[in-house]
Amino acid sequence: MTRTRTAVAVAMAFSAPAWADHQLGDDTNARMLGTITVTGGRPTSLPTQIPTVIEGTTREQIEATVNATDAEDALKYLPSLVVRKRYIGDYNHAVLATRASGTGNSARSMVFADGIPLSNLLGNGATFAPRWGMVSPEEIDRVDVLYGPFSAAYPGNSVGAVVDYVTRVPDKFEAHIKLGGAYSHFDQYSSSSTPSANQVDMSLGGRNGDWSWWLSASRMHSVGQALTFGNRLLSAGTVGNAGTPVTGAVPDLNPSNQPWWLVGGATIYDTTQEQAKLKIAYDFTPTIRATYILGAWNNSTYGSVDSYLRDRNGLPVYGGRVNIAGRVYNLDSPSPALAPTQNDITHTMQGLSVKSHTGGVFDWEVSGSLYDYAKDTLRTPIVSTNPATAAPYWLPLGTPPSVFGAPGRTTDMNGTGWNTLKLAGTWRPTGSAEGVGAHVVDFGAQQDTAKLRTQVSNTADWFSGPALTPFSQFNGNTRLQSLYAQDTWRFAPDWKTTLGLRFEDWKAYGGQLGSAATLLGFPERHQNDISPKAAIAWQANGDWLLKASVGRAVRYPTVSELYQGQILGNTIINNNPLLKPEKSWTTELTAERDTRNWGVDGLLRATLFFERTQDALYSQTSANNITTIQNVDAIRTKGLELAFNGYDVGIKGLELGGSLTLADSEITANTGFPASVGKQQPRVPRVRAALLATYRPDANWSYTFGARYSGTQYGTLDNSDPNGATYTGFSKYFVTDIRVRYRIDRQWSAAVGIDNLNNDKYWAFHPYPQRTFVAELKFDL
């Protein structure tokens, strides 16, 4: 088998890990010591010379194997990664989980697109998901993932993983259009609906002399399933005959196995998203290129409700005092059980970089980026029904317009965003990265600034009225200034090592918390830390490659974690002004085996990983019953990750890949919540697994079967939520997917697929999508 054929074949296999772009065949030096040789497409921006675990996938693989409706779908089958995507177009809860971090720890991973941060490091949790909408699946050229904090070029938020999306820049004129659609049926409690979506993606680009350009636009409209369910604990009801007698409430058990009533489905999103991207590159010389990127993303989402409750006349009941089976419940207090929402967003991002890429003695880069919340407004009602009519405020049930509007609140985040500045260089003293004695020295200076602006106001009409009077305010800023250097040295024919050091100076300032009458400031915070990194690789022979990595990561508190609390009089209370950053030491031991001598053209990887985290940042309830962000003293995680990718496995044209992750993540010390000691870290299951098989009988057809599994997990620090198969629970799951793609001719292709073929009903606080049918038609010029 030739090197070219093997490189292409393995690159098309599942998950395309670091070695998937190696030139295999007879030249074993091409994959020696874990470095990546990119054989096609634009190279990743990740530091691929570091001998550690990097996985990835290419545009061709995504098209053939994944029913990709959102950018995060490209990560679906990569080892140990899970994205908590609840519906097509999920913009505010699609958090990335990694080996030792669950879907509640969004600040423990980083996501970039062409070097521009998409990670929302203003907070840590479900509502701070990466801004996936800034990338459409059609513009992806490749995606790569660096596991762990082993590169000095990234801050402590890289402790879980760094995801790098590389989007297209063509070298000749090309144009593309794709039409896609999805349909499913959702059935849970008494909610029954038919979620659906339709999409159109258009792009074109080309190169004219020293200029190259790319223009893309996409529009998606989706209607999702109920994501939240109004509920009241059985024990919260008062025995008696008061309230409106209703039927239809669904009895169930909550995650702690306490009886409760489900009274309706809510947060039924009707979402329209529009995205546009302009990319322009100019080559000053054959080795110096300037690139400018401008992106815009619009999102309009209305979250409706569906009440299960019916009065004596069979009419739906949305709020007020109701009587369920002889007990009285208030559906409006302490907060509405069923309340709609309206969210309107316009975000923009810009990036400018000038880079040299000689591959010689010295290369350099100057880059900056800006992400801006130009508009970000959330509207909610204060109560669910009109006391004069008992009708819901948000549904036009024949009530006069004068009473249709309801008081509510608007949350305006205009002025929120982040920006970065980077100066970097690469020095190769010998003029090459190859050969014994060769060094590759990377160094740089960075500044990352984040600012959060949140103004909550009262309004007379929650749906469309102007903000009238202030209700609360929440502001703050963080700045991280960093210096880093790392040296990758081939000190012997079969050995390579990387040593790195990162210095970080962190500052939190401008923190403010306000009520309607008072705006108080927080004191500034300042701290600096040093994080060492090291990695080594040994090519034991032509078949075996052994690697080891270790790195320290310091994950500083985000604005929303640090500036918390309540106002009492003229004092901020229930906050922790001494909140510490997370400090993690992570270690990897990896063995990679070229399996051709076993009769299978592929690679097998086994990685042992260890992580010890001090002062982990979690929300927990203290002894005086106050729930705030606090430090968990120590969490220890150890595990094993196995990954395999093979080509022509038993049958010509069959590509087979998969991964298995075993993790034991335990809270070993927590003075603030002793009951959690010895318990499993929230949302980190003991077992995760993925399998992907693709059969290509010829150049036109591909048939793919995928499967994903996650074991038992918990949502609480003390694991007091054993019932995961319910609303607000975290369940195990087994999900299968299929996809068939046919290339009709050189320009036309079509694909159909089914996600969650076996219709597993599983949860991550909210319900995941049930069986979903997907179809697409694409034209490439």
From TrEMBL:
InterPro entries linked to this entry: Beta-barrel_TonB (IPR000531), Beta-barrel_TonB_sf (IPR036942), Plug_dom (IPR012910), Plug_dom_sf (IPR037066), TonB-dep_rcpt-like (IPR039426)
Keyword Translocase: no
Membrane topology per record: Multi-pass membrane protein
Pfam family, one: Plug
Xref: Gene3D superfamilies: TonB-dependent receptor, beta-barrel domain (2.40.170.20), TonB-dependent receptor, plug domain (2.170.130.10)
Domain TonB-dependent receptor plug: 50-162
Domain TonB-dependent receptor-like beta-barrel: from-to ranges: 303-757
Keywords assigned: Cell outer membrane, Ion transport, Membrane, Receptor, Signal, TonB box, Transmembrane, Transmembrane beta strand, Transport
Record's subcellular location: Cell outer membrane
Signal peptide interval: 1-20
Major location category of this protein: membrane
Similarity comment text for this entry: Belongs to the TonB-dependent receptor family.
Protein name from the UniProt record: TonB-dependent receptor
Species annotation: Variovorax robiniae
